[in-house]
């Protein structure tokens, strides 16, 4: 019996499971899923968990239950490609014939002194829970600094404002305008929302250090009671430490079939994998689709296409609290209530298709 091992129960590997189970797995193949937790976490919603507007249960989905799917829970400490094994912290060894690495990412601090020690994170469900405890335990009138005005920072700032109208919120944006790579109409809409709801956006920020209760921006020290970091990501350490060809962001280089160039039995998807596209849940799912097609062809000894179809992302969605949002699809921008309903509908559909 061949063993397909999936490392990480994120968006990419959930798509692999959805496509292979229950009826598309060859009779001589079983699947082993390795993860820290017994559920799939909706990472795109961690901002709401941290802000206190969604519960823990609302941001997770149960893994599939199938006789040919084995669940192994624990912390991965080593991937041994020569032995074709995965070692867990408790000493468990998982053998694989094919391996799909979808372990996601962690915060990247860009060498900013004090950032790892004095900021909170929303990169894992455990860290989002901890951040919720810190933010929602603050007394009235406290100041929260959010470093990084990408999608995560924007959504966290707006959701926190909805959760805690009594807090002072400062959003540090390195650019001259929010989401500078997208239409100015979108940036202006978000800017106006923040102005209306009293969220201070500090544009052209250059955070040089973080201390206990303070952010060093250029030559100014800004006092904050709690600070959250949303200013960049990198692959998790075990992937950064892998012996494999890497790109400039320390992500393993993969072929068009999503496997390592020197190992057709090891696939890398999601935030871990080198790509010219931005790391998103949507990208991870599309890469999972590629892996499924390639695996099925290889299992049946069929030739692979000389050229795989190019992955094209449809766009992105963001929320500004529970009532407003923004959507950018196919060069079209939608804002307001309709955009928020579109995002809520997509989340509902995702949960439905991934729930047994």
Automatic annotation (TrEMBL):
Statement: the UniProt record of this protein carries the keyword NADP: no
Gene3D superfamilies referenced in this protein's UniProt entry, alphabetically: 3.50.50.100
Every FAD/NAD(P)-binding domain range: 3-288
The record's listing under InterPro entries reads: FAD/NAD-bd_sf, FAD/NAD-binding_dom, NADH-Q_oxidoreductase
Query: Superkingdom of this entry's organism?
Result: Bacteria
Q: Which GO terms describe its biological process?
A: aerobic electron transport chain
Which cofactor does the UniProt annotation name?
FAD
The alphabetized UniProt keywords are:
FAD, Flavoprotein, Oxidoreductase
Pfam families xref list: Pyr_redox_2 (PF07992)
Q: Among its keywords, does the record have Flavoprotein?
A: yes
What are this entry's molecular-function GO terms? NAD(P)H dehydrogenase (quinone) activity
> What is the similarity comment for this entry?
Belongs to the NADH dehydrogenase family.
Protein name as catalogued: NADH dehydrogenase
Please name the source species: Caryophanon tenue
């Amino acid at each position: 019996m061949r063993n397909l091992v999936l490392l990480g129960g994120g968006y990419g590997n959930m798509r692999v499971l959805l496509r292979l189970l229950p009826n598309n797995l060859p009779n001589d193949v079983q699947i082993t899923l390795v993860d820290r937790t017994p559920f799939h976490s909706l990472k795109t919603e961690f901002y709401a968990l941290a802000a206190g507007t969604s519960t823990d249960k609302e941001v997770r989905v149960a893994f599939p239950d199938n006789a040919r799917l084995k669940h192994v829970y624990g912390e991965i400490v080593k991937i041994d490609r020569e032995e074709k094994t995965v070692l867990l912290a408790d000493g468990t060894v998982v053998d694989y014939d094919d391996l799909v690495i979808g372990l996601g990412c962690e915060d990247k601090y860009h060498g900013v002194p004090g950032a790892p020690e004095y900021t909170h994170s929303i990169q894992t469900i455990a860290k989002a829970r901890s951040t919720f405890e810190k933010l929602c335990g603050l007394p009235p009138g406290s100041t929260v600094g959010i470093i990084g005005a990408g999608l995560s920072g924007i959504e966290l700032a707006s959701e926190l404002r909805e959760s805690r109208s009594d807090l002072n919120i400062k959003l540090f944006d390195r650019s001259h305008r929010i989401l500078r790579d997208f239409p100015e109409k979108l940036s202006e809409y978000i800017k106006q929302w923040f102005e209306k709801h009293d969220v201070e956006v500090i544009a052209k920020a250059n955070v040089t250090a973080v201390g206990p209760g303070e952010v060093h921006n250029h030559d100014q020290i800004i006092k904050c009671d709690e600070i959250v970091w949303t200013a960049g990501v990198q692959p998790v350490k075990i992937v950064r430490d892998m012996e494999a060809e890497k790109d400039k962001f320390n992500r393993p280089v993969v072929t068009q079939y999503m496997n390592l160039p020197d190992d057709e039995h090891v696939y890398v998807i999601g935030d871990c994998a080198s790509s010219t596209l931005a790391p998103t849940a949507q990208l991870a799912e599309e890469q999972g689709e590629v892996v499924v097609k390639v695996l099925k062809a290889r299992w049946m000894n069929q030739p692979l296409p000389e050229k795989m179809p190019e992955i094209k992302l449809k766009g992105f969605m963001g929320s500004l609290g529970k009532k407003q949002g923004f959507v950018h699809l196919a060069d079209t921008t939608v804002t307001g209530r309709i955009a928020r309903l579109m995002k809520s509908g997509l989340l509902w559909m995702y949960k439905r298709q991934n729930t047994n």
